[in-house]
Amino acid sequence: MFQCVFSSGVLQPHSTSCLFKHLFYHSATPASQKQPEPIYSKKTEIQRQTVRAHSVKLFVFSALQVARQLLLQQQQQQQVSGLKSPKRNDKQPALQVPVSVAMMTPQVITPQQMQQILQQQVLSPQQLQVLLQQQQALMLQQQQLQEFYKKQQEQLQLQLLQQQHAGKQPKEQQQVATQQLAFQQQLLQMQQLQQQHLLSLQRQGLLTIQPGQPALPLQPLAQGMIPTELQQLWKEVTSAHSAEESTGSNHSSLDLTTTCVSSSAPSKTSLIMNPHASTNGQLSVHTPKRESLSHEEHPHSHPLYGHGVCKWPGCEAVCEDFQSFLKHLNSEHALDDRSTAQCRVQMQVVQQLELQLAKDKERLQAMMTHLHVKSTEPKAAPQPLNLVSSVTLSKSASEASPQSLPHTPTTPTAPITPVTQGPSVITTTSMHTVGPIRRRYSDKYNVPISSDIAQNQEFYKNAEVRPPFTYASLIRQAILESPEKQLTLNEIYNWFTRMFAYFRRNAATWKNAVRHNLSLHKCFVRVENVKGAVWTVDEVEFQKRRPQKISGNPSLIKNMQSSHAYCTPLNAALQASMAENSIPLYTTASMGNPTLGNLASAIREELNGAMEHTNSNESDSSPGRSPMQAVHPVHVKEEPLDPEEAEGPLSLVTTANHSPDFDHDRDYEDEPVNEDME
DNA sequence: CAATGCATAAACAATC
DNA sequence: AGATTGTTTATGCATT
């Protein structure tokens, strides 16, 4: 199915966003895989046999998940990503641009992942919240499942013991184990959902890590894929597993234990670990000897002991103190077939997870590599003109974070490179307070605003990226889009907030600017109406105001159009979560979607002097109709990040004081702004 | 370096 | 009276 996805299209060489759009377009079907139902449906039939398998597995899963999280966090810390994020375009299937097979490495991305990525790119805070909620729901489900199974397990444990006493032999146990495995698969799926979800979030984080430093593209990521801890963990598990495998099934427990005990390296004995252990990269044994050692080294931090209970899968026995826990461990979880079976199951689970993780990493890497290459290669911008970089950074921003300057890497080697320095940490707060920033729009380059907005509508709506147009242009656009070609001031406000996420904060600032522009420019004519006053546009004046400069330079236009696309909106929630994890994250204020505007319409509009407003719907419904792209292989210039990201906390502080409306971010958050235009 | 364009801030008045 | 709308001035930055 997935291959079908990638084999179905022809891709514009330049557009990462197109790729994502396309992928997203095809991702609807795979989404069904996310349904946890199968687990439930099968659980009843298997549960009787699944004594501890699930709990063991869950246990290991949680450990591995933590490990994976650690891994991903470390990846982020390495500031690798060079990925730009595509815009989410689920509402505009018409905009889907086919992806060429050549561009893709079909095996690297699963539909699920793709969809998740797509769904989570350019997330608005609301979207992310939903996702997080979903994840929480998943986790909740799992918890409930776990509890349920533990109950079942207690009963089954009794049965099992009875069976054993009654002379049941390993053979039957193996059968049980097999079924346990089957059940594990189910739970594994669920776990994978969570993991992928997490992974996606982390990817998002990766993607949001922004360029600015040409020299550090993907290598760090590739090399840093596997944190030391995880690698070690892997090694441990693998070696242990192989050790176990090498022994007869009947004696595996003994051998396994022997291996553990005899292991000289403390870190070589951990078969079961809890999240804490994995997080710390500490490995410990569950054998008595090892425990004592572990205890000495890390007092009361036994992987199998936490919150006063035994963490042995399916046990949960309450242990007053660590000593009693050790006693309990030695007495209840001594070497026997049961413990051995649990270990085996666990190892298999771990291996599966490792495989899955490896695959995911591979895919991620391939994706990033692919995107990196793609975005890099087409860049042939004749001039360093870039829309975003043309934006003026505020003084404070520049001073505060010189490295964060969104300068366009016009070199082919530095496309979407992550910024590894500069404002290393941008807090959620700072992200939200992108506040009054002085920046220059590229409006002067005459990018056809209507087509740009139309093409990137979803992007602008969700990403807090400042549209690369002047207030005057935006106001004009708002007015022209209205049926009556006239709007009240409030309607103009609403258009701004509705069309651009960016204008959902710092209302006082930009509203003032809007009013200022309306009054200042002759092209805006105030007309007294029955209900009050409306604003109209005097196109002649407007055209006077903006000399047409670049009609003849398509590449410039292209650059303009694509430039702002590579910025990724910082996901507030994501950032918050990262902040919670103390992950130094440098993110951008915007996430990009390189939706290249429809150049044809762009040029047309350009030539027409934008006199005749192009219907935005028109461009919406014609995805790949850009002749210009065909004629001129699009050169996507690696545009710099939105300067906002470069702003950094300092800028925030400096501007915050000036902004009377500084803290009114939510002014428009939930405000329905649909009165006009509809 | 000056001119220009734009963003931002703010004072102020008129109106709702 | 307070909020909104509209005008105007000032300032700073970037581009030309």
From TrEMBL:
Annotated Low complexity bias: 406-420
DNA-binding region: 466-539
Keyword entries, A-Z: DNA-binding, Metal-binding, Nucleus, Repressor, Transcription, Transcription regulation, Zinc, Zinc-finger
Keyword Hydrolase belongs to the record: no
Single GO term (MF): zinc ion binding
Pfam families: Forkhead, FOXP-CC
Organism, as annotated: Vulpes vulpes
UniProt gene name: FOXP1
Domain Fork-head positions: 466-539
Entry's localization field: Nucleus
Biased composition (Acidic residues): 668-678
A single cellular component GO annotation: nucleus
PANTHER family the record matches: FORKHEAD BOX P, ISOFORM C, FORKHEAD BOX PROTEIN P1
CDD domains: FH_FOXP2
BP GO annotations: animal organ development
Biased composition (Basic and acidic residues): 288-300
Region (Disordered): 271-300, 392-424, 612-678
Protein name (record): Forkhead box protein P1 isoform X4
Domain of life of the source: Eukaryota
Biased composition (Polar residues): 271-285, 392-405, 613-624
